[in-house]
Amino acid sequence: MGKENLAQKRSGGGGLPTSTAAPAANGRNRGLGSLPRGRQIQKTFNNIKITILCGFVTILVLRGTIGVGNLGNSDADAVNQNIIEETNRILAEIRSDSDPNDPDELTETEVNPNITYTLGPKIANWDKERKAWLNSNPEFPNFVNGKARILLVTGSPPKPCDNPIGDHYLLKSIKNKIDYCRIHGIEIVYNLAHLDKELAGYWAKLPLIRRLMLSHPEVEWIWWMDSDALFTDMVFEIPLSKYKNYNLVVHGYPDLMFDQKSWIALNTGSFLFRNCQWSLDLLDAWAPMGPKGPIREEAGKVLTANLKGRPAFEADDQSALIYLLLSQKDQWMNKVFLENSYYLHGYWAGLVDRYEEMMEKYHPGLGDERWPFVTHFVGCKPCGSYGDYPVEKCLGSMERAFNFADNQVLKLYGFGHRGLLSPKIKRIRNETAAPLEVVDQFDIRRHPVHESSGSQS
Amino acid sequence: MGKENLAQKRSGGGGLPTSTAAPAANGRNRGLGSLPRGRQIQKTFNNIKITILCGFVTILVLRGTIGVGNLGNSDADAVNQNIIEETNRILAEIRSDSDPNDPDELTETEVNPNITYTLGPKIANWDKERKAWLNSNPEFPNFVNGKARILLVTGSPPKPCDNPIGDHYLLKSIKNKIDYCRIHGIEIVYNLAHLDKELAGYWAKLPLIRRLMLSHPEVEWIWWMDSDALFTDMVFEIPLSKYKNYNLVVHGYPDLMFDQKSWIALNTGSFLFRNCQWSLDLLDAWAPMGPKGPIREEAGKVLTANLKGRPAFEADDQSALIYLLLSQKDQWMNKVFLENSYYLHGYWAGLVDRYEEMMEKYHPGLGDERWPFVTHFVGCKPCGSYGDYPVEKCLGSMERAFNFADNQVLKLYGFGHRGLLSPKIKRIRNETAAPLEVVDQFDIRRHPVHESSGSQS
C-alpha cells in the first residue's frame, strides 16, 4: 500500500482530506506553523473548501442510499426494503425456473413462416355435434331460466406486473367483474396461462376462445373482456334477443368501418362470440396474421398500409379483424353485429369525468352515454411500464370508475363510497330490523332490465 | 458570491478541483510553471488524489441513485423508477383523500367501552321471515338442482398491499376461488370495504357475514374463506347432507377444544354458517370482544389467560370463538360441527411439500391429507410486511399450491404446468378433432364427488 493510502487511512474513515494534520503525499509532514501567514490562510481556505465539498458529496451518497427524510425511520424502512428486495429475488428465481431448450416450453417464439399456422385440427361439424351433445346432456342446458348461458372470459399475464400497482388494479377489475356476473348469472374464466406460444399478448384470446368453446358446449356465448375494461352499469343486461341472427357482437361503427376503413372502427376489448361453427371458422380466418415473428411484422405493414390512422407496429388482433371483415365482407358481415347503441365498450376518456353528472341526472340500466355499460381504459396499461397517458390520470380515472360501479353493488347493503376517489365507504341508509324490505327494493336481480331502452320490468 | 465560488464555477461543473489551472482562492493565478519542480509534482499528486477521491465519491452518488449494474440500462430503469415513484405519489394522494373529522368516515376507531357495541338492530324472527320470503319468491330458491345455495365470501383490504407481490397473490387466490366456484355452482362475494369501523382486520368478517345473510335470503350457507386459503382439491365437494342438523361447520378438533382448551382448537379461515336465526345470535354473542381499543385489548388478556398456547396480543376472532364455545358450551355446541375428516382448512406447512407424492399416489376428490381440499397459508401474510415465516418459503409454497390446483382445472383444456413452481404450461394431451369426447371424460362437473370417501358417482 502506497504512502498516499496510508495517509488517507491515518486521516480516518473515508480518507477525505481534512483541515487538520493532512500529511503531504510524499510523507513529509508540513505543519501549518512553518508556512507564511498568507499561505496558511490560503491552505486553510483550500482545506475548508475541500472538506465542505466532499462532505456535501458524502451527504448526497447517504441520501441516495437511505432516502431523504427517512433518517428518523431508517430501521423500519430498511426492513421493508429488505423484504421487497428479497421478494424480487425470489420472484426472479421463480420466473427463471424454466428450460429455454425444452421444446414443450411454451414461450412466445417466432414461427417459421413456411409452415402454415393453425389454431388446431379443423372442426367441420361443430353445430351438429354440439346440438347432439346438448340433447344427450339435459343437465347441462345452454339456456337457464330462459337466458342463454354466457361465459365471460378475461385474463392477464402469468407473472407479476412490472408496475406493482398493476396487480392491485387487476384485483379490483376482477372483483368488479365478479360482482356484475354474480348479479346476472354469468360464469367467469380468468386466464393466467399462455395456451399457444405463438399467439401471446393481445392475440392470446383467440386460442383461448376456441379452446373454451370446444370444452364448454353448454355455453351459448363466449364474452371476451379485457382486464382494463370495467363494468360501470351494474343493472344493464346485454339484449341477446337482438342478436338471434348474429354470431359476433362487437362495439363498432359502420361508417368508420366501411367508409373510412379506420383502424379503430371496432374494439376487440369486449365482444361476444356465439359458440358455433361459424365462430370457429372466423377464428381460423382471423388467426393467420397473429404468429409472432416475420408473419406478424409483415402483417403489421399490410394493416398500416390499408387502415386509416393506424400507426406502424406489428399486427394486432383488432386491426386484423377489421381488415378481415373488410376484405371478406360478403363472407362474414351478415353475421356480425356492429353495436353502438350502448357501450359494450366505452372509451374511458370521454366518460370518467362525467360520473357525478350521471349520478345526478340519470340512473343505472341505460348502458349508453348517460350511464355507460362498460368503461374501457384503453392505453392505460397499469400492469406495464409504458402507458399512452399520464399515470395520474389513468389511476385516478380507474379508481373513479371502480367506485362508481361499486356504489351500485354496495347500495343493496346500505353503503356507498365517500367520494369517487375514496376506497372508504359510509352508510347511506340506516340499519333496519326489517331487512327483507330492503332486499325487495334494492336487489338488482329483482329489477332486471332487458332492453337498452332502459325500461324497468 | 465569494471568490471561492467564482473559482469553483470557473473550474467547471461541480466545481471540483482539477489538476489543470486551479486558481488559488485569493484570486492570484498561480501557474504551475512558477513553482519549484518538487512542489509542482507534489501539487499534481495532491490534485490527482483529490480528483480520484471525489470522482469515486461521485460514482457512489450515482450508484445510490440509479443502482449497481444498471449503467448499461440506466434510461429504461430511470423511466421505470420514475413511473413507480409517480405511482406511489398518486396512491398516497388517493389514500389521503379523506376527512379525519368526518363522523361518517369509516376508519377503525376506538370504541367507548361504556357504550355496548352491537352488530346492528336485534333481529328476532329471521327463520320465519326468511321462510315466508322464500315462499313468496320461488324464482330465488335456496336449493338449486338439489343443492343448497352457497355464497362464498372472501376479501382483502381496500388499499394496495404494503408488499407489491401481495396483490399478485391476491389475484391468483381469487382466480383459484373463481375456478372452484364455477365448477361447483357457488357464488362469490369479494369484499374490499370496511363495513364497520370498529370491527376491521380479522373481525371484519362478522359484520360482513351478518350483512350478507340479511341481504341474501336465498342463500342457505355463507362460506367465509380467507384470502390466504387456496382450493387444492377441485373435485371435492362439501358433504352438506352431513350438516343438516348443524348451523356452523368449522375445521377443528374436539380434544384440542374441550380437553386442552387450545387457542388453535379450530380455524376461522374457512367455515360455513347457515343463514338462520341461530347464526345471527351467535354472531351477536361473538362480536363483543372485537371492538378496537380497550375492549379488544382487555379481551385479549382474558383469552391469553384462558386458552392454552395463546400468545399475548389483542383479541382475535378465532380465539374469541373458541372461548365463547367453551364458556357457553351448552348453548351453542349442539349446532356446531367440528370437522376434521377432510381439510376444510389445511395448514400449509405439512402439505405443500407432498404435492408430488399426492399426484403420484392419489387423485382429486379425497379432500383429506391424501389430497387436501383447502391449503391455508396461515402466517404467510404476503400482503403485509411481516409474516411469521421466511418469505421465500411462503411464496414458493403458495406458487406450488396454486399450480397444483390449476393443473386440475387445466386438465380439461389439455394443459398442465411445467412444474409446480412454474407459471408456464405445456400440453398434456394432443389436440383432437373430437373435442366432446374430452369433455365427457375430463369435465369435473360431470363426475361429481359428494362424499368425503372419495367415491365417484
From TrEMBL, chains A, B:
It comes from the Eukaryota. InterPro entries: Glyco_trans_34, Nucleotide-diphossugar_trans. It catalyses: Transfers an alpha-D-xylosyl residue from UDP-D-xylose to a glucose residue in xyloglucan, forming an alpha-(1->6)-D-xylosyl-D-glucose linkage. It is found in: Golgi apparatus membrane. Keywords: Glycoprotein, Glycosyltransferase, Golgi apparatus, Membrane, Signal-anchor, Transferase, Transmembrane, Transmembrane helix. Its EC number is 2.4.2.39. One of its GO terms (cellular component) is Golgi membrane. It is a single-pass type II membrane protein. GO terms for molecular function: hexosyltransferase activity; xyloglucan 6-xylosyltransferase activity. Pfam families: Glyco_transf_34. GO terms for biological process: xyloglucan biosynthetic process. Residues 1-37 are annotated as: Disordered. Belongs to the glycosyltransferase 34 family. This is xyloglucan 6-xylosyltransferase. The lineage of its organism: Eukaryota, Viridiplantae, Streptophyta, Embryophyta, Tracheophyta.
